[in-house]
Structures are given as C-alpha cells and as structure tokens.
Specification:
mainly alpha; 2 domains; 0% strand
Amino acid sequence: MPIGCGGITGVLTTWMRTPLARSRRLLGEDHLDTLSSANSLACDLRELGRVGEALALDQDTLARKRRVLGDDHPSTLSSASNLALDLYELGRVDEALALDEDTLARKRRVLGEDHPDTLTSASNLAIDLRALGRVREAEELDEYVRQHRRAE
C-alpha cells in the first residue's frame, strides 16, 4: 500500500499529533512549547505532502506567535517563513512572495544582513520571484546571498 493512502501515514500522523494534543491540554494553546510542537507537526505534515493541513496549522501558529511574542521575534519570523513555504507549495506564489518580502525585511532589521536565517529568507524570496517570472530580481537576490555567505 502506498504511503499516501492511509496505512503507515495514518499511524505516523496519530503519533505526530500526540505531543501537540498533550501540550495543548497541559500547557494551553499559547504556551511556547505548544507552539513549538505545532510548528514541528506542520513541518512533518508538509514533508508528507499534506500541505493543506500544514497551512492551517502554520496560520494558527503564526497568529498566536504574533500575539504572544510580537511580529519581530525570531520565532515568529521562522513561523512566517514556514507559512510562506506552504503557500508556495499550494501554488499561491503571490501570497508567498508578499509574506517572504515582509519576513526578509524584518529579519534584516532584527537579525542582521549576514545571519543565516536572513540569507535563507532571501533565497526563499528569490525562488518566489523566479516562479513569477521576475528572473532578474531573483538573480540579484541570489548574488546577495552568495556575497553574504562568503563573508561567513
């Protein structure tokens, strides 16, 4: 039986959801450990190709982190990047682009130009740009990433 047709996927999903359910019950929806579990589950769901489920979880997690930690907290910015990945995977590239642009600007301000997370966000934005046919802008961003990674 293929992985995507139930079987092992169903068992894995139940196993993956258990820590989040426990954390929600014991710590509450907005506790940082709960939000971390939600983030991990969304990443696992995305890896299994269940991007729609990951999207819903990432949207909720980002909203909670914005409320609890603020818009510019590194963990909030990481959640924004995850949500942009979901949007891109679902073909909602314009939405991914807007979120990635905002996230990159915030990471540059909060983490600095040379921080690895900032450079990853720049690479993600270049992918969005390329998907939308904005190749020249994507190449400029790729060059920016290469230059800053060399400085490490």
